[in-house]
Design goal:
By secondary structure, the chain is α/β, with parallel strands linked by helices. The chain is built from twelve helices and 20 strands. The chain has two domains: 217 residues, Nitrilase/N-carbamoyl-D-aminoacid amidohydrolase (4-Layer Sandwich), CATH 3.60.110.10; 203 residues, HUPs (Rossmann fold). Helices cover 36% and strands 18% of the residues. It is globular.
Length: 427
């Protein structure tokens, strides 16, 4: 059976645009001989519906869009949607089989027959392993995943395919909303763990599932940095377009200004990128940043902030001064170094080794791994007193964040469970 994959770009609750994109992608696949179609869970409802999914108007629009999609498609399409019965509380979307004028709601986490195949469907945020004999394991994650998590999902798909002997499909829409980048790509795994297709990240596409595609892809740190770079470029272009800005402004005195400028020039035309100087004003970084923010607003430019995730976690004063978007706000300092090596790499130069400081290692353990200072100090060279000092700095940063106008963070990761100290980066 020839299966078509439709990976679309979505917004929040724009049913008419999503319906049009799904139909266009489906027709491209059908022109190539597709007999069955897959689409992401967010393909129709859009990314992050949040409280909208419990509103009757949203559910009614979803049901109408599902029926309209079924009327347009001569072959069946499998996707997920929050559309349901009025008054129904749905935390995760339900899978639907639409086509030939019919809309069929499928059970989740149960084996069901679809076009002669035994299919097991999962719509949870994190993957759930299937222990039943099936022909196809289909993951339609309800929460968008990001550039670096492509590697984790690929490893999960290969492992699950090896253990179950079934084909595995993981479908994800491309999404960008309110200054936050969400979504990456989709991947397909054949019987025995061979990766058949890794759809391009942050791009709408429609392909056929074919055996002659690439073998298993090993993702090195260099490839992870390349995906992060593509994600940032995609987000910068969308931020300018959706925000109605005339271009991008890079403050010369901010951290990582040269790297920000290089990425901005890659993302937009040279005419729309400006470098802002602090001028003749003498004062602190906060005063200089305020002057550049005023200059950017006068010229209707998107002002970038070069702060890293380490800066935000520790509450360094200059990061709260100005900037409408912080492209590196989700990256640790060592990850920014890896990104800089990629941007300025040349065949004749050998990139320097990435040094991870003990402070950054401690921050990653505290936040990313959600470990306590006592746990981290055992078996490591980090002093427990230093860890507790970092914890107090993070707490003060979280307290001060509520009284400052902070830049929006470009998210590139799916956040772990929150650290006991609340911080806005963990939302």
């Amino acid at each position: 059976m020839r299966i078509g994959i439709v990976q679309t770009e979505v917004e929040i609750g724009d049913f008419s645009a999503h319906l049009r994109r799904l139909v266009q992608g489906a027709r491209l696949c059908m022109d190539r001989g597709a007999e069955f179609l897959f689409a992401p869970a967010q393909g129709l409802d859009g990314a992050w519906p949040g409280a909208l999914r419990s509103r009757s108007s949203f559910m009614l629009q979803g049901k109408a869009a599902l029926q309209a999609l079924a009327d347009e498609l001569p072959v069946p399409m499998l996707l997920a949607s929050y559309a349901g019965e009025l008054g129904e509380a749905t935390e995760f979307p339900s899978p639907y089989l639409v086509g030939r004028g019919e809309v069929r709601r499928l059970p989740v986490h149960r084996t069901t027959r679809v076009c002669g195949m035994r299919v097991w469907i999962d719509t949870m945020e994190s993957p759930i392993y299937c222990t039943k004999p099936v022909d196809l394991l289909l993951h339609l994650p309800s929460q968008t995943w990001h550039a670096d998590l492509c590697t984790e999902w690929a490893a999960h798909a290969r492992r699950e395919s090896d253990e179950s002997g079934a084909a595995v499909g993981i479908l994800q829409a491309v999404a960008y909303a309110d200054g936050c980048l969400m979504g990456g790509g989709s991947l397909l795994c054949a019987h025995g763990g061979k990766l058949l297709r890794f759809l391009p990240e942050f791009a709408a596409t429609a392909v056929l599932w074919k055996e002659e595609s690439a073998a298993w892809e090993h993702v090195s740190p260099k490839f992870a940095a390349a995906r992060t770079l593509r994600a940032i470029q995609y987000a910068l272009r969308n931020a300018v377009e959706q925000g109605g800005y005339s271009g991008i402004a890079v403050p010369a005195s901010f951290p990582h200004a040269e790297l920000l400028l290089a990425i901005a020039l890659r993302s937009c035309s040279k005419r729309s990128v400006r470098v802002l100087q602090a001028g003749d004003r003498v004062g602190s970084l906060r005063m200089q940043a305020a002057a550049m923010q005023d200059a950017a607003d006068e010229q209707c430019l998107l002002l970038l902030n070069g702060a890293s995730r380490d800066d935000f976690l520790l509450g360094r004063d200059h990061v709260y001064a100005a900037g409408s978007l912080a492209p590196f706000g989700d990256l640790h300092d060592s990850e920014i170094v890896s990104l800089a090596q990629l941007v300025w790499s040349s065949p004749c130069s050998t990139p320097p080794a990435i040094h991870v400081s003990s402070q950054e290692r401690a921050l990653r353990s505290l936040v990313d791994e959600n470990r306590s200072p006592a746990e981290i100090s055992v078996g490591s060279h980090v002093d427990e007193g230093e860890l507790r000092t970092l914890t107090r700095m993070m707490y003060r940063a979280a307290q001060r964040a509520g009284s400052h106008i902070v830049p929006r963070i470009l998210r590139l990761h799916k956040w772990p469970e929150p650290f006991p100290v609340y911080h806005r980066l963990m939302e």
